[in-house]
Amino acid sequence: MNGRGERNGFLFCADPLRLSRPDPQFAAELAAARAAGGRIALLDHDALLAGDAPGAVARVARDSGPYWYRGWMIPSARYAELEAALGARGCALLTGAAGYQRAHELPGWYEAFAPLTPRSVWCATAPGAPPPSADELAGLAAPLGPGPGIVKDFVKSRKHEWYEACYVPELADAEQLASVVGRFVELQGPFLAGGLVLRSFEPFVADGEARVWWVDGEAVLVTAHPDSPGPVSVPEPDFLREAVGRLGLRWVTTDLALREDGVWRVVEVGDGQVSGVPAGAEAGALFAALAGVGPR
User: How far is Cα 262 from Cα 94, in angstroms, rounded to an integer?
Assistant: First the structure.
């Protein structure tokens, strides 16, 4: 229970076809939030993405207390607009815009997890801008040294177009690197988030991914990764506690993959508000923890 003796609220995405009801994609989680005593409000996600943040939160009661957002991903700039629009209604987000960006985009979380994650370099790139030249990319990749690599933006990769727009067999091959980056930028189009990231490739065991959910520095839930649902066996996540503490954020996820040499590695960090829970996972303990934590 928070410091005022009240339960925290949860701002869920509304059904885009009927804004008075929640998006059915989050029905099980909304039920878990209600069971934990959390207040429920609805957000028009489409309106927020279209730039109408005040309209997106029009159904949120004024002065209705702090909220966790729970729903689809939001670009960092739009999240800042959401925070401002809620503030104008006398409400607040328990994860502020700066914290959201830090967890959501790789440059924000990388330093805290550097010993535990593949080596990475990045550069800012605006959506719709031409990709860096082959020479520029060669300079960017140089600190990673020779060997295979991965291309992504600050948030997402295109791993389903693995050989076309994600995997680079040899980072030192400037022409090959430029080809993959160019295709990645083309496919991301206006949805390119933040800029380009190059990561050293590490070989992982197939279907060996897990997601750990952290609330105020405590691991409260371990699930499969939504892209590879199924039983998972991971070590106690205590080895991540120090890095999560360095990041200093309240609700985050860490995605783990088992490297072929038997070492668990962090492949992604995320803001818990927009991280997917795999179908069938029991999230009651997660929402109970979120409903009760106090303000900072």
Answer: 37
Q: Residues in the chain, how many? A: 296
Structure tokens at 42: 């609805």
109-122 pLDDT, tens digit each? 999 999 999 999 99
Of the pLDDT bands very low, low, confident and very high (cuts 50, 70, 90), residue 63 is very high
What's the pTM value of the predicted model, to 2 decimals? 0.93
194-204 pLDDT, tens digit each: 999 999 999 99
How buried is 160 (Cβ within 10 angstroms: 0-12 exposed, 13-18 middle, 19+ buried)?
exposed
